[in-house]
Every structure is written in structure tokens, then in C-alpha cells.
Amino acid sequence: VQLVESGGGLVQPGGSLRLSCAGSGFTFSTYTMRWYRQAPGKERELVAGISSDSRYKDYADTVKGRFTISRDNAKNTVYLQMNSLKPEDTAVYYCHRFGGFWGQGTQVTVSS
Fold this sequence. Notes:
Structural class: mainly beta
Radius of gyration: 13 Å
């Protein structure tokens, strides 16, 4: 199992980023996928999740209305569209699959 995130970077408050997570080594289309984040000095927290068929999505209260999770099973990829970014969204963002599988993370920094 391999999960590879990309798309992080430095963005100004109010800006947008789209994160991607490419999965390999497993049948991607059969797994719920989740995004987590971890800010410095804080615990890792769940940001969003999406069911295998995209019917069900859930979000942390802190990102509802600003972030959108989606997936393309043909590309074995899950996305996190992040809009109206705030400084408190600064964190390393991780892709997760059930069974304890994590990507290496991608840094998102929101700062002017």
C-alpha cells in the first residue's frame, strides 16, 4: 500500500489549494479515504472523509463550507479542495486508508 500526497504549499489567507493523494498497491475503489491534518504542537485531527463510491462525505466542523473532498476511482486519487483558507489551516495534511496506512504528508502554510 502506498499513498502519495501532493499539492501543498504557501498561500495567502483567503486563497485556495487542491491537495491530491494517489493510492497504489490496493483496490482503491473499495476503500473509504480520509484526510487528516496535524498542526505544530497539536494532535492529528480528521478533516474529511469520503466513502468508496463518493455517496457519503463528512467534514470537521472547522472546515465545513470551505473544503470539499472528492475522488476519482479511475485515477486512484482522492482530492481535497480547500477554499477560503485561514492561518489556522496551516498544518501537514495526510491521506489515510483504513488499516493504519498513511501518506508522507504535504505541508500547507497559510500566511500573508
